[in-house]
Amino acid sequence: MMSLNSLRVAGLVANAGKSHCSKLINNARHLSSSGPAAPARPVRQAVTKEERAARRAARKEQASAVISNKGAVSGEAAKSAGPSFDASRMGWYAAVIIPTALIGWGIVDDDSPMAQLSRMVGLTDAIEEYAVPSRVKLIPDWNQIPNIPPNIPQPPTLVLDLENTLVCSTWDRKYGWRHAKRPGVDKFLATLSQYYEIVIFSPSQDGVAAPVVASLDTKGYTMHHLYRDSTNYQNGVHCKDLSWLNRSLRKVVVLDDDPEALKFQPENLIRVKPYDKADTEDTTLERITPLLVEISREGYEDIPGVLRQFEGMDADEIADEHERRINELRQRQNQISQRGLGSFASKSNLPPPELPPNLDGAPASGQQLTSKDLVGSAPPTETEKSGVIGWLQRRQQQQEEANKEKFGLWNEVMMKKQAERQKKMEEQLAQQQSA
């Protein structure tokens, strides 16, 4: 009974709440419908084009009047204040310009007070310590080089530039640095290593140039490799000062494409054109080889004096001039031989040979051996032994024998060096394969 009564009471309360809420909602709707209306938005009047243009002109006149008034006020204030002086700005200018001018004066003029003061305090010596080569003797003495017998005379020295002389270097994003060898460089090094002490001198850092030199000279034709730490830095240029080379300058010849690099000893330079890898027909090294071989074979004691007659020419022009002189000399010798004491008759009047000439030096088939073939040429006559002609012949023969002996010993040294290098490479390859 008690539970039924409680349920009834709860139902009555719920119905009363619903009816009360509905009354409140109806009252709110009534108040909103009967309340005052919202104020209406005023209607904007239309403006014609003429009125808009007039208003725009008025605003411009007003702005120009304001600007002119401000300018007049600032001008009067400036006149009343007088010229201004910014001491801090002028101080900064003086602190930068004056020391720069003094340092420049000391660099340009070695006798200036600033240069003398720099030498007194030791600043010049400290700077030159980094500008000059890292050691006094860039290459060791000849008698201190390993594997060189003491009885071998010192050959002349050939200094070769690397970049743009022996190789051409290019860079791209895909492959990085790539190096192209100049045509004929392998034969050039192989030939001249028999006549010269070859030095490769590069102004690049050794970490950059050393791998290029190693891939270029795989057979060890070159004896010394010099890099940027061996240059003399002057006015922004890494110069190759040959006076630090520890060799007589009268026995040194240089191949380089940059004359500024040899400004201390320009008389030792044979200038070559920079190599372009697109030029596959380049023959500079091949054409200059005969002159370099002749300089070493003839044993010239003053190589700069020999090169002085080709002053102003590059390697190709020197090769052309050298070939022209050789041809002229041959023609002159032929003319002298034709007009000699033994040529009483012209060669054109001689009868044709009965047998074709034997170019190989052996007797032709069907031809009997003569006493000359068995015994050899007749000994020189008394006329040939005496006089100026005999002295010249003996001197030439002695010089040829001395050169043969010298070059034979030098070739033995180079062959031994190449064999050691090849053996070392084979050992390294075997170690890599075993690892």
From TrEMBL:
The keyword Transmembrane applies. GO terms for biological process: protein transport. It is found in: Mitochondrion inner membrane. The keyword Cytoplasm does not apply. InterPro entries: FCP1_dom (IPR004274), HAD-like_sf (IPR036412), HAD_sf (IPR023214), TIM50 (IPR050365). Residues 151-295 form the FCP1 homology domain. This is Mitochondrial import inner membrane translocase subunit TIM50. Component of the TIM23 complex. Belongs to the TIM50 family. Coiled coil: none annotated. Essential component of the TIM23 complex, a complex that mediates the translocation of transit peptide-containing proteins across the mitochondrial inner membrane. GO terms for cellular component: TIM23 mitochondrial import inner membrane translocase complex. It holds the Pfam family NIF. It comes from the Eukaryota. Residues 332-388 are annotated as: Disordered. Residues 332-348 have a biased composition (Polar residues). SUPFAM superfamilies: HAD-like. It is a single-pass membrane protein. Keywords: Membrane, Mitochondrion, Mitochondrion inner membrane, Protein transport, Transit peptide, Translocation, Transmembrane, Transmembrane helix, Transport.
